[in-house]
Design a protein that fits this description.
Elements lengths: L1 E5 L10 H5 L5 E5 L23 E6 L1 H10 L5 E5 L11 H13 L1 H12 L12 H13 L3 H6 L4 E6 L7 H8 L4 E4 L6 H4 L1 H15 L2
Parallel strand pairs: 1-2, 1-3, 3-4, 4-5, 5-6
Helix pairs in contact: 3-4, 3-5
Length: 213
């Protein structure tokens, strides 16, 4: 079993550390989108050697949108952890534009406020921020639309969400994935892999076993 993990905006691969320790039998690959330095060794692109018949793609938040665009369906299952196929118009573009202005004015303070709102205060040192890449990621949130890519997937999807997520609220998750398809945690903020890694890992394992021949 090969699991490919992609983190969301404002994070790095350290988001998955506790969760992957709960999956010792899996082959793990990480994709780092370049927002925050200091994460574990990772690829910057979809792993080229990936065998689609043995790969489950797991994304957090923006990482799911990235997977839908860059993974191109080259996996036998998709796990969305608080993810989406487009961010706007579920969230007004003006809110993302405000983040862009904050990033330009004081990147450290902006990320610290963002991490607090996610439930992960002081996730990383702010001297490791790649401000240009973070700004690019906000452009993705404003403009990328992978709704058609999601609809064209021919693989099973597991969706995990948190009832107290203020970044991707429950109503947004239900609009994207369907209310009956989501496995809910009562809490966890916007960082389920950090707050409830064992819960996330258990659901991923159950999902992976359901895909086994």
């Amino acid at each position: 079993m090969h699991l490919v993990f992609v983190h969301g905006w404002g994070f790095n691969g350290r988001l998955w550390a506790d969760m992957t320790r709960c999956l010792p039998q899996a082959r793990i690959s990480l994709v780092d989108l370049g927002f925050v330095s200091g994460g574990p060794e990772a690829s910057r692109t979809w792993p080229g050697e990936t065998d689609a018949q043995d790969t489950i793609a797991i994304g957090h938040s923006l990482g799911v949108l990235w997977l839908l665009k860059e993974g191109r369906g080259c996996f036998k299952g998709l796990v969305s952890v608080q993810g989406f196929d487009r961010y706007c118009p579920h969230v007004p573009q003006a809110r993302v534009a405000a983040l862009k202005r904050g990033l330009a004015r004081d990147a450290g303070a902006t990320l610290r406020a963002f991490w607090r709102s996610c439930g992960a205060p002081d996730f990383a040192e702010t001297d490791g921020l790649n401000v240009a890449r973070l700004d690019e990621g906000l452009d993705w949130l404003m403009h990328w639309d992978a709704e058609d890519a999601k609809k064209s997937l021919r693989c099973p999807i597991l969706t995990l969400g948190s009832k107290d997520d203020v970044i991707v609220p429950p109503a947004m998750s239900e609009a994207v994935w369907g209310a009956k398809t989501i496995q809910w945690s009562p809490d966890g903020g916007h960082v389920l892999p950090l707050r409830h890694p064992d819960w996330c890992a258990r659901h991923v394992l159950e999902f992976a076993h359901s895909l086994s021949p």
